[in-house]
């Protein structure tokens, strides 16, 4: 497998994982985000998405909804990007 095929497969797997989280709420937040953005992501940005998606759904949802602050290890800038994307979709 070439590097291009490898990153394409990684994008595909991340899109699938984004839509099959275990809670419908997070599917509807991360799924559309992944669909819209993964094709343009390089390996470093895919790493950031993967790290965010490694978080458990209940706390992740509270962070997205603004009900709790994420812990220090969470990439807040990337989380804010996901939240802004979700908010923009809701505003349409």
Strand-residue fraction?
A: under 5%
The counted number of beta strands is 0
One letter per element, helices H and strands E, the order comes to HHHHH
Largest sheet: none
Radius of gyration: 13 Å
Assembly type of the chains comes to single chain
Fraction of residues in helix: over 70%
Low-confidence stretches are none
Tell me the span between the first and last alpha carbons. 40 Å
Output the number of helix runs.
Answer: 5
If you average the pLDDT, what whole number results? 94
The secondary-structure class comes to mainly alpha
What is the overall silhouette?
Answer: globular
Notes on the structure:
By secondary structure, the chain is mostly helical. 72% of the residues lie in helices and 0% in strands. The protein contains five helices and no strands. The chain has helices spanning 3-19, 24-37, 43-53, 57-64, 76-91. The protein is globular. The mean pLDDT is 94.
Q: What features would you highlight for this structure?
A:
92 residues; mainly alpha; 5 helices; 0% strand; globular
Present the secondary structure layout.
Elements: H1 3-19, H2 24-37, H3 43-53, H4 57-64, H5 76-91
Helix pairs in contact: 1-2, 1-3, 2-5
Question: What's a concise summary of this model?
Answer:
By secondary structure, this protein is mostly helical. The protein contains five helices and no strands.
